[in-house]
Structure formats: C-alpha cells, structure tokens
Specification:
Pfam families: 3HCDH, 3HCDH_N. The chain is built from eleven helices and eight strands. The protein is α/β, with parallel strands linked by helices and 286 residues long. It has an eight-stranded mixed sheet, sandwiched between helices. The protein is globular. The structure holds acetoacetyl-coenzyme A (CAA) and nicotinamide-adenine-dinucleotide. Acetoacetyl-coenzyme A (CAA) binds next to helix 7 and helix 9.
Length: 286
C-alpha cells in the first residue's frame, strides 16, 4: 500500500470532506481537523451522507462504509496531527489562513520526513513551503470536485520540494487512492485552473453583458459540447467565493485581464451568494 498509513486533512468543507472520504475508503487512518465544532459536525455529516449515497447506489457495501467511518476521526485540535505521515491542507483559499496552518503544522507534526501537502487551487506552493522549517517536504496535491468522482490529482513540486517528497505524494495519489496524476509547475492555476477559470469568468461576463440567460449559456455547453455541466452551474459547484479567490491569485500572478473577476462575481460574493454550498448562486438550491 505504500509507506503512508496515517494521514491528516485540515478543513472538512467541500474538498476536505471528499479527500477524507476517499482516503478512509482506501483503508487509511484519517484525522480531519476543522476550525470549530459546528464546522466539524457539518464535515462529518457530509462524509456520512456521501458514503450512504455510495451504499444506496450499490457502489459500496454497508460494512465497507462503516469500516471507512471507523477509520475517521473528526476533531478541532490540530495537535491530533502529531503522528501523521502526510497532512493535506484543504482550508479556504486564503493565503494568510494557509500560512498560519502550515506554520503550526510544522511545529506539531513530529516526523521530520512527514509530508505537508496543500490542496490549494492557485496559491504558490513555494510560499507555503517557506512558512515551515521543512520546505523540502511541502508539495501541492490538488484534487478535483467532487473528489470521489473526479479521477485527477495534480502534483505540484515547488522549487524547493525534494524529489522523494514528490515521488511519495504521487505514489499516494496513484497507488493508494487510484487517481491519475498530472505534474504541474508551481504557477498560479497549475494546469487545469489556468484553463478552466478564464472559461468560467467568460461565462459570467457573457451573462453580465446580457448576451444570453444562465440556462441558455449552460445548455449551450452541455448540449453543444457535451460538458457534464455548464460553466455557471460549475462555478456554483466550485463555490463563487473560491472561484473569485482563485481568479484573484491568478490575476495577481499574471496581470492578464482574462483572469480578472468580473463585477457580477464580486457582487455575488459580497452578497453571500456562494453557489450550491450557500443555497444560492447563479441558481437557487434551497
Ligand atoms: N460523491 C460520490 N459520487 C458522486 C458524487 C459525490 N459527491 N456526486 C456525484 N457522484 C456520482 C454519482 O453517484 C453518479 O455515479 P453513477 O453514474 O455511477 O451512478 C455520477 O457521479 C453522476 O452523478 P449524478 O447522476 O448524481 O449527477 P450528474 O450526472 O449531474 O453528475 C457531477 C454530477 C459528477 C458533478 C458531474 O456533473 C460533473 O462531473 N461535473 C463537472 C465537475 C467538474 O468539472 N469538476 C471540476 C471542478 S474544478 C476543480 O475541482 C478544481 C478547483 O481548484 C476549483
Ligand atoms: P470550503 O469553503 O467548502 O471549506 C473550507 C473549510 O475550511 C471550511 O469548512 C472551514 O471551516 C475550514 N477552515 C477554515 N480555516 C480553518 C482552519 N484554520 N483550520 C481548519 N479548518 C479551517 O472550501 P473548499 O471548496 O473545500 O476549498 C478548500 C481548498 O480546496 C481551497 O484551497 C480551494 O481552493 C481548494 N479547491 C477547491 C475546489 C472546489 O471545487 N471547491 C477544488 C479543488 C481545490
């Protein structure tokens, strides 16, 4: 199974809960750390619901779902990561919050060879690495939403990542989780978001300009190009707060107008319309 048998996941939102679920299903002991008790309860419920859905769809036996749940501990104590061999950070796309988490994890995780990975969509891995005293053990491990469904993981070594860190993180994603890996340079957006985010922003600009309705923009791409969902529904799935944060860091990196968040996206985030997770985005989910 590889050398990693105990992992930590920081953040149990959309992504952290998915990463924790697929890892526990793969037979690994998982500690999940959330910011507070309410978020921890919500994360645990999200994982339980997703496992139940797997059982209802006949993809997983009830025994395997119970066994996966038994391998999961959800807590609010970062100290619970002390004995972990790999920790995957999946807190919100906010550099200050991530730097704080990496600094604290570095002091808490005892094994100096343990890997500290980030699921960031767009922030520089090198910057997160330099918040620790083990920059050679820091790597990007970027999963896709929904984690149980999407087969890809991007592996992003920074300029200071050791080769064996990249190799162990890659082996974890492929051999343990059964994902397919693509390697990307430490540039904002890596491979997939560098292509996807300008597309999502273009759809928002199109809606903002009155070019077409949200439904027609989405139907255009679903029925015309066989995408599984249209760009506005996809932005709602990703989260409009996350879409804006990713666009902002890509704009900061490249200074190209195609990465600039359009005013409609800014106002929706200001209004708390974060998409599916808040119940309202380009569509209503209540
Ligand atoms: N957990 C487990 N399985 C799930 C699931 C979940 N959360 N959501 C859907 N599924 C499974 C279903 O069980 C179903 O499986 P079967 O076909 O075997 O029955 C399959 O996925 C399809 O699900 P549904 O029929 O319920 O719904 P759908 O056909 O509308 O698919 C979708 C939903 C999987 C989200 C699909 O629309 C899709 O793939 N959309 C594109 C998502 C995408 O592009 N993600 C990348 C976002 S960008 C990103 O992640 C990077 C970033 O940094 C922002
Ligand atoms: P989210 O808003 O659903 O979840 C973030 C979680 O982090 C929340 O539950 C929050 O309570 C928790 N959190 C915040 N500060 C914390 C702390 N100090 N300690 C522990 N938990 C903390 O966000 P998400 O969509 O899961 O995104 C998480 C990360 O994954 C971001 O970096 C994002 O860019 C990346 N990502 C998102 C997607 C996506 O489609 N949403 C896809 C790939 C990668």
């Amino acid at each position: 199974m590889g050398d990693i048998t105990r992992i930590g996941v920081i953040g149990a939102g959309l992504m952290g809960s998915g990463i924790a679920e697929v890892t526990a299903k793969a037979g690994i002991d998982v500690v999940v750390v959330e910011a507070d008790a309410t978020a921890a309860d919500a994360g645990r419920t999200r994982i339980e619901k997703s496992l139940r859905r797997g059982v209802d769809k006949g993809k997983l036996s009830a025994e395997d779902a119970d066994a996966a749940l038994a391998r999961l501990t959800v807590t609010t104590e970062l100290d619970a990561c002390a004995d972990r061999e790999l920790v995957i950070e999946a807190v919100a796309e906010n550099e200050a919050v991530k730097l704080d988490v990496f600094g604290r994890l570095d002091s808490i995780v005892r094994d100096p060879d343990a890997i500290l990975a980030s699921n960031t969509s767009s922030l520089p891995i090198a910057r997160l690495a330099m918040a620790t005293r083990r920059p050679d053990r820091v790597v990007g491990l970027h999963f896709f939403n929904p984690v149980p469904v999407q087969k890809l993981v991007e592996v992003i070594p920074s300029l200071v990542t050791a080769d064996d860190t990249t190799a162990r993180a890659t082996a974890f994603a492929t051999d343990v989780l059964g994902k397919t890996v693509v390697r990307a340079a430490d540039r904002a957006g890596f491979v997939v978001n560098a292509l996807l985010i300008p597309y999502l922003l273009s759809a928002i600009r199109m809606l903002e300009a009155g070019h077409a309705s949200a439904e027609d923009i989405d139907n255009g791409m679903v029925l015309g190009c066989a995408h599984p969902m249209g760009p506005l529904r996809l932005a709602d799935l990703v989260g409009l707060d996350t879409t804006k944060a990713v666009a902002d860091s890509m704009y900061e990196e490249y200074k190209e107008p195609l990465y600039a968040a359009p005013p409609l996206l800014l106002r929706m985030v200001d209004a708390g319309h974060y998409g599916r997770k808040s119940g309202r985005g380009f569509y209503d989910y209540t």
